């Protein structure tokens, strides 16, 4: 029987692409419940779904910030049976901290972090009872490593990662899988919204030096990064959903592997912080730091082996 997959945030970007891709699967492995906050914004998904609409794809309203709407959506599914939950809805925020209101930050946390928590609270008990299910969470490479001027966004994705890491072990007792998908830059409305917000921001709230670093240096860099490393929204998540043994983490963009390795290599955090500082402000080669990181990694591997022996794992 096809798997029922509920996806949030399907009016654009990754959610839209994934919903259409799963619904049009040649092997008809999936029945997609494509949800969005405002079903009035479904035109792009309807066009992408084509003949799948009404057969393997159904559009429903769901606002991740509203428990009532999550409950109503899940209740409308026969037997409340969801095999795969894809928590995708999310919002971004970039810029100097001083230019961002606390209310906007709380609203971002409410969507990116508590949105996931609300979904899981609604869906996990059914999955536990059925002893099966898969929760796939669109995190970000920024859930592993903070990036300059993304303070609040990165914090929300770190929260997502900590939540999932903790929950995954309990879920395993009930045969429920949890997977984190960690994309680098993906060319979606996410990027365009970032530039629009940057244009609207009130830079008198911060000092001129910070404002200049952000508007001249950061935004220019961001455009370059999206242009050179940006991936299309199709489709790393499908791989995770269809895997016979889904991984707990799936990093979609190999370009970010060195960054993640640097962080792992040096528990003091000195190398990764210097690497970013040099990259953004000094434009010096990070090769020297890379070599130091490799030495540290070797040292770390020895420590991991030692720890494993102490825990009786080897
Ligand atoms: P997007 O802006 O195109 O899609 C986000 C979707 O979430 C939108 O359709 C939006 O309407 C929806 N949404 C926002 N608040 C909601 C709410 N309260 N309830 C329901 N839906 C809501 O951007 P995207 O790139 O497709 O983002 C999808 C996910 O991927 C997000 O979690 C984002 O953090 C993550 N991500 C994006 C990138 C990137 O570079 N685009 C990189 C890493 C991770």
Automatic annotation (TrEMBL):
Keywords of the record: Lipid metabolism, Oxidoreductase
Signal peptide boundaries: none
Gene Ontology CC annotation, any one: cytosol
InterPro entries for this protein: 17beta_DH, KR_dom, NAD(P)-bd_dom_sf, Sc_DH/Rdtase_CS, SDR_fam
Domain Ketoreductase: 3-189
GO terms, biological process: estrogen biosynthetic process
MF annotations from Gene Ontology: estradiol 17-beta-dehydrogenase [NAD(P)+] activity
Pfam annotation, one family: adh_short
Family: Belongs to the short-chain dehydrogenases/reductases (SDR) family.
Protein name: Ketoreductase domain-containing protein
Gene: LOC101881276
